[in-house]
């Protein structure tokens, strides 16, 4: 890491809570002068004489005028979020007071923080690694229990520890191989090839597992595009209403969502299911096979999961078989749901559609088996239990880097299979190390950091 980046001598200030009116707002200062600046505005007590991790009640006075009664939280570096001296002013949450307090801090010598600058300082001072710092942004943006859990897990360093262990082993081996190069005349092998081979194999498994988890990570972070399709009168609107009544998710503006194509969002077991353009599909789909409307078909293909709802009285087993083969042709992740079980009865329905696996029979009208439907939906997109304790990759930057790690590891293995000399193996191992380091921030540059932290909001 370049030294130019560390050792800030300026002090930054920003509103840490959401802008607007609230009962309380928090203004955060970080930097070498944080305590001194606050002290100039706080006549009640000499803050310079106070211990770290203490609270102080008093007025903030600027230009002889009291701005507000506040609670000052005082943290001395390095035992603080950013690793620097940090002051948090809890004030009354009026936008006017917030602005006045920030202005007073700026007058006293602070400057307004850039987006993500607090977290960037925490990273540069070694308080968090890059993957952890990025998870702070995810944590703030989390909209469901599952996305909250994964971000939390990552912030606490689970992901980083896994990568770190891998990196350390690879470093050891690359050091041994490079040592061999110094003795190249003598034809010695310090790095035991069998052990290296085993290590590469394990590393490949770990990294493969992590890259695979990205699909799940995406599901957790962004939700799943979901379509309910079927013939008219199958009961799609009824089912939609039943699901929405119980599970309508409260979502504001989430990145990656276009309001005009997403109508409703369900929160089922912490996963967001975004019902895509259901109105359009409802109107234009007779059966999927007779779709002339290419656009609708594309929508269905875009969906992470398609609920195919059919009327158990009207449709035959042959109809369903035909439908299945169409879905499979197009590689669609579908769930077969037979509706109106209240009319036909489950055992009759089972007999009528015997031999077709995995049909779930429900009654949208009577709310029967809706819980089973929810379980099936979650299983369809999570492929197994949701284990949010496990490391799940949610960040596209990490995913790209992990794919490069995977490629480099495969190259090492192929190289070993074909008896590649140590110096060439060492190059591929270094490539692995490079990409692993990019994730946690051992290898980084200023532009990359600016890019990452610019995605944060101000005050974080
Ligand atoms: P859509 O055209 O697929 O959206 O179907 P609707 O939701 O409008 O339902 C068509 C008709 O089927 C309506 O009269 C519903 O009341 C009825 N219906 C929907 N679900 C059920 C069900 O589970 N059982 C029964 N008996 N009727 C249902």
From TrEMBL:
Mg(2+) binds at residues 237, 258. K(+) binds at residues 233, 252, 254, 257. GO terms for cellular component: cytosol. GTP binds at residues 233-238, 252-258, 277-280. The keyword tRNA processing applies. Its cofactor is K(+). It comes from the Bacteria. Residues 223-382 form the TrmE-type G domain. Coiled coil: none annotated. It holds the Pfam family TrmE_N. Signal peptide: none annotated. Homodimer. Heterotetramer of two MnmE and two MnmG subunits. This is tRNA modification GTPase MnmE. It comes from Chitinophaga rupis.
């Amino acid at each position: 890491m370049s030294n130019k980046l560390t050792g800030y001598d300026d002090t930054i200030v920003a509103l840490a809570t959401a802008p607007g009116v609230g009962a309380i707002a928090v203004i955060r200062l970080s930097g070498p002068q944080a305590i001194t600046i606050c002290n100039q505005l706080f006549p009640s007590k000499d803050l310079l004489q106070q211990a770290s991790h203490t609270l102080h009640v008093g007025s903030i006075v600027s230009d002889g005028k009291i701005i507000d009664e506040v609670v000052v939280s005082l943290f001395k570096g390095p035992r603080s979020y950013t690793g620097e001296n940090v002051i948090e002013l809890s004030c009354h949450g009026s936008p006017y007071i917030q602005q006045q307090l920030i202005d007073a801090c700026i007058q006293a010598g602070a400057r307004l923080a850039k987006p993500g600058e607090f977290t960037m300082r925490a990273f540069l001072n070694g308080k968090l690694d890059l993957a952890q710092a990025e998870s702070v942004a995810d944590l703030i943006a989390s909209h469901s229990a599952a996305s909250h859990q994964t971000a939390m897990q990552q912030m606490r360093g689970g992901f980083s520890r896994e990568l770190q262990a891998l990196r350390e082993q690879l470093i050891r081996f690359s050091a041994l191989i490079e040592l061999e190069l110094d003795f190249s005349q003598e034809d010695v092998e310090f790095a035991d090839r069998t052990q290296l081979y085993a290590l590469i194999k394990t590393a490949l498994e770990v990294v493969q597992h992590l890259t695979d988890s990205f699909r799940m990570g995406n599901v957790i972070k962004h939700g799943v595009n979901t379509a309910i399709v079927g013939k008219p009168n199958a009961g799609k609107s009824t089912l939609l209403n039943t699901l929405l009544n119980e599970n309508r998710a409260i979502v504001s503006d989430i990145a990656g969502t276009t309001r005009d194509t997403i109508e409703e969002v369900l929160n089922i077991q912490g996963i967001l299911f975004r019902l895509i353009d259901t109105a359009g599909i409802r109107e234009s789909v007779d059966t999927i096979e007779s779709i002339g409307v290419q656009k609708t078909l594309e929508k269905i293909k875009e969906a992470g999961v398609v609920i195919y709802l059919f009327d158990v009285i009207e449709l035959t087993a042959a109809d369903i078989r035909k439908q299945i083969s169409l879905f499979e042709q197009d590689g669609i992740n579908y769930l077969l749901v037979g509706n109106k079980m209240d009319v036909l009865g489950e055992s009759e329905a089972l007999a009528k559609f015997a031999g077709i696996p995995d049909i779930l029979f429900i009654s949208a009208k009577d709310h029967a088996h809706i819980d089973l439907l929810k379980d099936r939906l979650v299983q369809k997109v999570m492929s197994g239990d949701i284990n949010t304790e496990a490391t799940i990759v949610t960040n596209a930057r990490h995913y790209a880097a992990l794919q490069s790690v995977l490629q480099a590891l495969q190259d090492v293995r192929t190289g070993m299979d074909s008896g590649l000399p140590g110096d060439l193996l060492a190059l591929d191992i270094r490539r692995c190390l490079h990409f692993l380091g990019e994730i946690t921030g051992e290898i980084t540059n200023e532009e990359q950091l600016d890019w990452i932290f610019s995605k944060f909001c101000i005050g974080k």
